[in-house]
Structure formats: structure tokens, C-alpha cells
């Protein structure tokens, strides 16, 4: 019994020390160029694989825009997204929380509408999100100063025309 408990503790310790902040900082040049042309190149760890698959299956009508790419580019992007998706990064806190917040039979193609991310932004006044300096929640980099470095901590938030976020 004692050794069993000890083993459990060791495991817990190892597991928690392996828990990383936010999302995995992964980069791919083709991805940054293509998927960072109109907005911040979202880290793959912000959505599960099935979300990326669904989103990539309809680039002709991508939120009203045409985001199609040639076949070879498509394969590079799809591979990068799937290999680095949220479920592949469950040791990262935000990836894990996003995945765990999504009901089994639902597929979100917007990060900002996933239950976890949606909930995290509920306290922000609407006009601060819709103002022209931000436009919408999709625009992570407008408020999260470290977003490009995969830092999404609330201490690192600075909302235009509002300032630092004090919780
Ligand atoms: C031609 C411009 C354009 C390109 C290129 C583009 N997007 Fe988008 N994307 C948009 C627009 C517009 C929206 C909607 C923003 C809004 O909510 O108003 C969007 C939204 C998104 C969202 C949802 C953001 C949220 O609210 O959580 C994801 C995810 C996304 N794009 C991924 C991609 C990926 C992956 C690629 C590359 C294959 C890509 N985009 C390329 C224009 C583009
Ligand atoms: C209008 C500014 C704004 C935009 C745009 C925005 N956020 Fe946030 N975000 C915030 C604020 C403010 C908080 C802290 C809210 C709180 O603590 O109540 C936050 C919290 C978070 C948290 C939780 C951080 C923590 O320490 O608990 C995550 C993760 C996050 N945002 C990710 C994103 C992602 C990903 C995007 C883009 C898809 C995004 N945010 C867009 C302002 C913004």
C-alpha cells in the first residue's frame, strides 16, 4: 500500500512538473505566410484536430473570404495543423482546457467560440471588443501582447483604449 501511494505521488509530481503554460510555440513559414496574411497565425494548439480539418475543408468560403491555396501548400498547412493540434499538446494548459471544454459531438471552427475561450472573455465590455482597434475576439494580438510568442496569460493583456486588465 505504502509503495503504491508513493508511486502515485511520484507520478503526480512528474505529471504536474510537465504541465506547461498556454499553448505550444510552433512555427512553420508556409503557415505564417498563408494563414497569417489576414489575421494572426493562430497556433495549432488552440483547436483540436477535427476543428482544423473542418476549417481546411472549406477554404473557399472562409468566414466570407476566399482563403484557398494550391494543393502542395494545402498539404503542408494541413499536416502542420494536425500534427500540432490541441490534443497533441495536452500537457499545455490552454490546449487541455480548450479540448476539455468542447462537448464530444461538437466541432468548432472558431477558437473564440469554444466554451473555454468564450467564458474567459465574458467579463470584457462589448464595445472594447467591437471597437475599430480590435474589431473582434478573433484578433488575439490586439489585446494579448505576447500572443505571437504563444503567451495568453491575463497579466499580459492590454486592451486598446482601456489598458491593462486587472482581475
Ligand atoms: C483572405 C483572408 C484570410 C486568410 C488568407 C485566412 N483567413 Fe482565417 N479568417 C479570416 C476572416 C475574415 C476571419 C473571421 C474574423 C472575424 O471573426 O471577423 C477568419 C477567422 C479565422 C479563424 C477563427 C478565429 C476565431 O474567431 O477564433 C480561424 C481559426 C482561422 N481564420 C484560421 C485560418 C487558417 C488556418 C488559415 C490558413 C489556411 C486562414 N485562416 C487564412 C480571413 C482569412
Ligand atoms: C478585447 C481584447 C481581447 C481579445 C481580442 C482576446 N482576448 Fe483573450 N483575454 C482578454 C482579457 C481581458 C482576458 C482576461 C479575462 C479575465 O481574466 O476575466 C483574456 C483571457 C484569455 C485567456 C485566459 C488567460 C488566463 O490567464 O486565464 C486565454 C487563454 C485567452 N484570453 C486567449 C485568447 C485568444 C486565443 C484570443 C484570440 C482568438 C483572444 N484571447 C482574444 C482580452 C482579449
Task: Outline the biggest β-sheet.
Answer: 2 strands, antiparallel
Q: What share of the residues lie within helices?
A: 40-55%
Topology order in helix (H) and strand (E) letters: HHHHHHHHEE
Q: Which runs of at least 5 residues are low in confidence (pLDDT < 50)?
A: none
The whole-number mean of residue pLDDT values reads 93
Give the termini distance in whole angstroms.
Answer: 44 Å
Structural class: mainly alpha
Q: What portion of residues belong to β-strands?
A: under 5%
Write down the domain tally: 2
Q: Spell out which ligands are present.
A: heme C
Strand order of the largest sheet: 1-2
Q: How many DSSP-defined strands?
A: 2
Gyration radius from CA atoms, angstroms:
18 Å
InterPro entries: Dihaem_cytochrome-c
Protein name: Cytochrome C
Organism: Malaciobacter halophilus
What does this structure look like?
It is a single chain. The chain has two domains: 2-110, no CATH class; 121-167, no CATH class. Helix content is 41%, strand content 2%. It has helices spanning 2-17, 29-35, 49-56, 71-83, 93-101, 115-120, 126-130, 140-143, and strands spanning 158-159, 163-164. The protein has a two-stranded antiparallel ribbon with strand order 1-2. One heme C is lined by residues 34-35, 37-39, 42, 55, 59, 62-63, 65, 67, 77, 110-112, 136-138.
Task: Summarize, please.
This is Cytochrome C. The chain has 8 helices and 2 strands; from the N terminus they run ααααααααββ.
Amino acid at each position: 500500500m505504502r509503495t503504491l501511494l508513493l508511486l502515485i505521488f511520484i507520478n503526480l509530481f512528474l505529471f504536474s512538473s510537465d504541465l506547461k503554460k498556454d499553448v505550444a510555440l510552433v512555427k512553420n513559414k508556409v503557415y505564417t505566410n498563408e494563414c497569417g496574411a489576414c489575421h494572426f497565425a493562430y497556433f495549432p494548439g488552440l483547436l483540436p484536430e477535427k476543428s482544423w480539418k473542418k476549417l481546411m475543408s472549406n477554404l473557399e468560403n472562409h468566414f466570407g473570404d476566399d482563403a484557398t491555396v494550391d494543393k502542395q501548400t494545402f498539404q503542408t498547412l494541413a499536416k502542420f495543423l494536425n500534427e500540432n493540434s490541441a490534443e497533441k499538446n495536452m500537457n499545455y494548459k490552454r490546449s487541455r482546457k480548450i479540448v476539455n471544454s468542447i462537448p464530444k459531438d461538437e466541432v468548432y471552427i472558431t477558437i473564440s467560440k469554444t466554451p473555454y475561450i468564450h467564458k474567459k472573455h465574458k467579463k470584457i465590455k462589448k464595445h472594447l471588443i467591437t471597437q475599430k482597434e480590435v474589431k473582434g475576439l478573433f484578433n488575439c494580438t490586439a489585446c494579448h501582447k505576447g500572443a505571437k510568442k504563444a503567451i495568453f496569460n491575463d497579466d499580459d493583456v492590454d486592451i486598446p483604449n482601456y489598458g491593462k486588465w486587472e482581475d
